[in-house]
Design goal:
single chain, alpha/beta, Rossmann fold, Alpha-Beta Plaits, seven-stranded mixed beta sheet, 27% strand, globular, binds ribulose-5-phosphate
């Protein structure tokens, strides 16, 4: 199976976690796009979605799925999202699609995080994928120097030759060369640096379930 087919497989499998009559939390990315397409087949059975990005909102609305502001919803039973990396404990690196801040917000209001990913995303230790960090632009250089002091190398993510601007009006720094041996400690520390909006390690809000697309079918990992 191609990577695209594996993404479609887990996108479809995630429907079993959607609670009829409720609002579902929806992440961002190419795997989530497959989930949104699958969700459209049961749109009459749900109230709607809380979305983690403008891109997912556009796709949900185009398929006729109502999108609620996160402030209108106290809690969600489930949040379905992809990952750039997931380890064997359910800790993730996210933000390859620059939506990490809103993803962490929707994950925080959800009782269960179901990660959908193809098997290439499963890793023994986080850190091979460049770590996305959303940063307030006036702090970019300082935050990058702090990552260099940690042994990493950091670049500002560009789009059309200019710093990419997130849905929240901020920039993204991508950090290579980090060994994230203690994801909870790492997330806790970097989240406190002045100017860091969100670090793309999801350890405090890790996944409870991963639906992993493999050549043998969907494997369910519980954490
Ligand atoms: C977006 C994300 C995505 O979940 C992550 O980048 C995985 O994306 P894809 O499903 O396209 O591989 O964190 O900010």
């Amino acid at each position: 199976m191609t990577q695209d087919e594996l993404k479609a497989l887990v996108g479809q499998a995630a429907l079993q976690y959607v609670v009829p009559g409720e609002i579902v939390g929806v992440g961002t990315g190419s795997t989530v796009n497959k989930f949104i397409d699958a969700l459209a087949t049961m749109k009459d059975q749900i109230k709607g979605a809380v979305s983690s990005s403008e891109a997912s909102t556009v796709r949900l609305k185009a398929l006729g799925i109502p999108v609620f502001d996160s402030n209108e919803v106290e809690s969600l039973s489930v949040y379905i999202d992809g990952a750039d990396e997931i380890d064997h404990q359910g800790h993730m690196v996210k933000g390859g699609g620059a939506a990490l801040t809103r993803e962490k917000i929707v994950a925080a209001q959800s009782k269960q995080f179901v990660c959908i990913a193809d098997e290439s995303k499963l890793v023994d230790a986080l850190g091979a994928f460049p770590l996305p960090v959303e940063v307030i632009p006036m702090a970019t250089a300082r935050v990058m120097r702090q990552f260099v002091a940690m042994g990493g190398s950091a670049v500002v993510r560009l789009k059309d030759g200019q710093p990419l601007v997130t849905d929240n009006g901020q920039h993204i720094v991508d950090v290579k060369g980090l060994k994230i041996t203690d994801p909870v400690a790492f997330e806790t520390e970097v989240s406190q640096w002045p100017g860091v909006v969100t670090v793309g390690v999801f350890a405090l809000q890790k996944a409870q379930v991963c639906l992993l697309g493999t050549a043998q079918g969907v494997k369910t990992l519980n954490f």
